[in-house]
Amino acid sequence: MFSPKGPSMRELVVQALSSVERGYDLLAPKFDHTPFRTPDLVLDATADALRPLGPFGRGLDVCCGTGAGARILQPLCRGRVTGVDFSAGMLARARRAHPDAGWVRADVRDLPFDGSFDLAVTFGALGHFLPAERPALFAGVHRALRPDGLFAFPIGAPAPVTSGRYWAMLGFDLAMRVRNAVWRPPFVMYYGTCPLHAVRADLSAAGFTVTTVPLTALGRREDGSPRCRLVLARKS
Ligand SMILES: C[S@@+](CC[C@H](N)C(=O)[O-])C[C@H]1O[C@@H](n2cnc3c(N)ncnc32)[C@H](O)[C@@H]1O
Question: Whole-angstrom Cα distance, residue 15 to residue 31?
Fold first, then answer.
C-alpha cells in the first residue's frame, strides 16, 4: 500500500484486526517500508540534540521495533545498547540489523530493568498506551535508569484544526475507537491521547525533571513554533 515493498491493504486490515503484539509480528517483515518506522530525519535530529548532552554509558530503546533507534544510540553511547519490545517478529528484524546490540522481549508496561541505563529513548510508540497505562511505563523507565539518567523522545506539535493532518488523525482515532468497541482483541493506537502537557505531567509524577528543546531541523509551523520538540526527562 505504501510502496511496492510495503504491506498490501489486505495485510494491513488483517494486522489491524489482531492484537498490538500479533499485529506487529505480522507487519515485521515489511515494517521498514511503512511510514510507521520513524524516519531517519527524526532520528538524526534527535541524535543532534542529544550529542552535546553525552556521551552516555548504556542506552535503552523502549518499543524498539525493528531497531530504528539503535542506529543513533550506538554512536551516542559508550556502553551496550539494548532494545526492548514485545513483538518477537520485530525483535528478530532488529537483531538481524544490529547483531551487536542486546534485544529483550518484554511488555514495556512492566520493564524488567533496574538502574542499568544512562540514556533511554522511545520513538513512535506512545500512542500505543492509554493515558492510564503511562504511569507504569514511565515508572519502569525511571527504574531502568541510573541516577541522573535521561529519558528522551520526540513529540510533535498538535496539528492545527484547519489542517488536513488534524482531520486525518481525528478520523483515524475515531475509526480505532469504533474498531475497539466492536472487536477483540483491542489494538490500541491513538494519535490524540499523548499531548505534551499530559505526558509532561505523567513524567513529573514518575520522578523526572522535564524540559524540552525544539528540533528545528524538522521545520516550523506557520506561527513560527517548532513542528517537533525533544522531551528531556531527567531522573532526579
Ligand atoms: C510504531 S512501532 C515503532 C518502532 C520503532 N520504535 C520505530 O520508531 O521504528 C511501535 C512498537 O511498539 C511496540 N509495542 C507496543 N506496545 C508495546 C508494549 N506494551 N510492550 C512492548 N512493546 C510494545 C510494538 O511491538 C512496535 O514494535
Answer: 12
End-to-end CA distance of the chain: 45
CB atoms within 10 A of CB 33: 15
Q: What's the predicted TM-score (pTM) here?
A: 0.96
Q: What is the CA radius of gyration of the chain?
A: 17
Residue intervals in the chain for CATH 3.40.50.150:
39-158+195-235
pLDDT tens for residues 51-68? 999 999 999 999 999 999
Q: Which residue(s) pair with 105 in the sheet?
A: 85
Please tell me the distance between residue 223's alpha carbon and the centre of ligand 1 in angstroms: 32
Distance from the alpha carbon of residue 88 to the mean position of ligand 1, in angstroms: 11
In CATH, what number does 39-158+195-235 get? 3.40.50.150
- Bridge partners, 62 (sequence order): 84, 122
Ligand 1 proximity of 108 Cβ (cutoff 6 Å): yes
